[in-house]
């Protein structure tokens, strides 16, 4: 597991354009699970383009802090075992 925000950003930068499965804390004991593609990484956030038929919204964005605090877990589907928690 990456220890710093810079390490998390570098790890996500190397996976741009790849398919992923997202598991996020939705609050009040709700968990959001969906699939999409990592489209952009910015200074403080990253953007995921979701499959349109599964979700009402097209894009979601999370901060690198969400991964560090384990509120968001990303598993890349194109790689054999590439999980970022």
Detailed description of the structure:
This protein is α+β, with helices and mostly antiparallel strands and 85 residues long. The chain has a single domain, classed as SH3 type barrels (Roll). Helices cover 16% and strands 47% of the residues. The protein has a six-stranded antiparallel sheet. Strand 2 and strand 3 form a beta hairpin. The chain is globular and about 30 Å long. It starts with a helix and ends with a strand. The mean pLDDT is 86.
Name of the CATH architecture: Roll
Can you tell me the number of structural domains? 1
What is the structural class? alpha+beta
**Rounded mean pLDDT score:** 86
List the strand order in the largest sheet. Answer: 4-3-2-1-5-6
Helix content bin: 10-25%
How much of the residues is beta strand, in percent? over 45%
Q: Kindly report how far apart the N and C termini lie.
A: 6 Å
Q: Radius of gyration, Cα only, in angstroms?
A: 12 Å
Would you summarize the structure shown here?
The protein is of the alpha+beta class and 85 residues long. The protein is built from 2 helices and 6 strands, in the order αββββαββ.
Helix-strand layout with pairing:
Elements: H1 5-13, E1 19-27, E2 30-41, E3 45-50, E4 59-63, H2 64-68, E5 72-76, E6 82-84
Observed structural traits:
SH3 type barrels; 85 residues; 6 strands; alpha+beta; six-stranded antiparallel sheet
